[in-house]
Amino acid sequence: VKPPGPGPETTLVLTDIESSTLLFETMPQGLMDCVMKCHHTTVRAVSLRNNGYEWSTEGDSFLIAFHTAVDALLFAVDLQ
């Protein structure tokens, strides 16, 4: 997927796992490693399926750019 250029339809989505710091502090490291691998794989697959461009990622957060708001919305619903 090519990155969208600047324009009125370009839409950014920021994902984040709620309370992830607490999860990392209380859950076994091996389990969290598996959870994060699954999370990253899922976000990337759903993003590609909805024409998203992975702009950046840090920890459990992704910043994904979409060519249209409709694609961004479909991504968000699909990811849920």
Quick synopsis:
By secondary structure, this protein is of the alpha+beta class.
Q: Which consecutive residue ranges, at least 5 long each, have pLDDT under 50?
A: none
How many helices? The count is: 3
- Oligomer state equals single chain
Question: DSSP strand (E) fraction?
Answer: 15-25%
Derived from helix and strand composition plus strand pairing, the structural class reads alpha+beta
The end-to-end span amounts to: 21 Å
CATH homologous superfamily, by name? Nucleotide cyclase, GGDEF domain
Return the CATH architecture: 2-Layer Sandwich
The Rg value, from CA coordinates, equals 14 Å
Averaged pLDDT, please? 96
The helix-strand sequence is: EHHEEH
Biggest sheet: strands, sense, closure? 3 strands, antiparallel
Count of separate structural domains:
1
Q: Using DSSP, what is the number of strands?
A: 3
CATH topology: Alpha-Beta Plaits
Q: In what order do the strands lie side by side in the largest sheet?
A: 1-3-2
Protein name: Guanylate cyclase domain-containing protein
Organism: Haematococcus lacustris
InterPro entries: Adenylyl/Guanylyl_Cyclase_3/4, Nucleotide_cyclase
